[in-house]
Structures are given as structure tokens and as C-alpha cells.
Amino acid sequence: MRVVLEDVSFAYPGSVEPLFLNFSYAFDAGTVTAVVGPSGTGKSTLLDLIGGLQLPDSGSVELHDAESSRIGPRCSWVLQNNMLLGGRTAVDNAALALIATGSPRGESRARALDALTRFGLSDRADYPPERLSGGEAQRVTIARCFLSAAPIILADEPTGQLDSLNSQLVFDALIESASDGKVVILATHDQALAQQAHAIVDLAG
Ligand SMILES: Nc1ncnc2c1ncn2[C@@H]1O[C@H](COP(=O)(O)OP(=O)(O)OP(=O)(O)O)[C@@H](O)[C@H]1O
Ligand SMILES: [Mg+2]
């Protein structure tokens, strides 16, 4: 898997200056790339362009997938505003990544529980999102992302609400996903984590 951006230019409608002007970069499988830069420099927008939520005005965003017969989504998202289904428990939310691709419910829940345990949430498995703290909800979305078979992980500030111990747990899981052959792209303000990534894209520079 390889994500290749070539000469990408993009401006939000109505904005004076383009956010990206002839931006080129290739994100490789097996690599965690940290996207850094001050607030408003376009980190989230870059993930949107890669995930297909925004289209470039010119240039190209291509996902080169060696497994041409792959079924299912190619991008697994961790969004800035934790997308969890209300009224469903943490374990059901985490299991969604598996159930969505046809895994049996019982097995999906068992694997989801393992993932929640890994992120320190075994005693929150039966809580609905409404009863989780911001950081707990964030870790449920990470667990769900970690379970997804999608070959690209787009993580937007996945540690924004976490303490340093939990941030490191999450980062280690991203490194592990990269070791499994995924393309991992992490937008972050956390310099300590960015320094541990395999590559850094600095949008300020
Ligand atoms: N839907 C939108 N319409 C118009 N402008 C937008 C839209 N979304 C973002 N922008 C603008 O584009 C710029 C980049 O936003 P983006 O969210 O990509 O930044 P960011 O680097 O992720 O910031 P942060 O660190 O605060 O998350 C900002 O100036 C923002 O105001
Ligand atoms: Mg952002």
C-alpha cells in the first residue's frame, strides 16, 4: 500500500489563499508519518484529502494497493471528535470495525474486549459513550481503528485528550499497525510523539 500525493493544490471555497499549493508526498506501508504544524495549517484537511472527504482542486491523490482484490474500506479513521454510536456499549462500538466486515458477533466482541483491555478500558466495556470521559471515548475509537483491517490508518489528534502514559500506549499501537504493513498517518501537536514517528511532514515549513 502506498498513498501518493502529487502536485496537490486545495483551497476551501471563499478562502483567499490556497491551503496546499503543489504539495507532493508519498506515504509508505510500514511507516508511521507524523503530520505536524500549528493549528490551522491544514493537518486535518490533508487527512480529508487522503481519505477522499475532500477533492483536490488540481493534482492527484492516489492509493496504490498491491492487493487489487481487497474488499472493504481502505481507510480507518480516528477523528478529532470521537465518532461513537450513542446507546451502544464501548465493546460494541469497538467491535463495529469487525462486524462491518462480516466477522461473527461473538468473536468480534471478544477481540474488541481484548483491544479495550490493551488501552486500559476493560472495566468500561459495558458503558455507552455518554458515560465515558473524553479520553476514554478517544481510546475506544483507537481500539476500533486498531481492529480494522483497512490498510490505511488516518488518525487526527488521537491522543489530544490523553495523558502521556495513554498517549504512548496509543502511539505504540500505531507503530504496531505499521509493522503489520499499514500506512499510518498521524496528525498531532504532540512533539514527543512526532519525534518517535518514522517520518515527519511539517506543514509550517
Ligand atoms: N469546512 C471548511 N470550510 C472553510 N475553511 C475551513 C474548513 N475546514 C477548515 N477550514 C480552514 O482551513 C484551515 C486548515 O484547517 P484544518 O482543520 O485542516 O487545520 P489543522 O492543522 O487540522 O488545525 P488544528 O491543529 O486546529 O486541528 C483553517 O484555517 C480552517 O479555518
Ligand atoms: Mg485538525
From TrEMBL:
GO cellular component term of the entry, any: plasma membrane
Keywords: ATP-binding, Nucleotide-binding
InterPro entries: AAA+_ATPase, ABC_transporter-like_ATP-bd, ABC_transporter-like_CS, ABC_transpr_LolD-like, P-loop_NTPase
UniProt keyword ATP-binding present: yes
Domain called ABC transporter: residue spans: 3-205
Gene3D superfamilies in alphabetical order: P-loop containing nucleotide triphosphate hydrolases
Protein name: ABC transporter domain-containing protein
Origin species: Microbacterium aurum
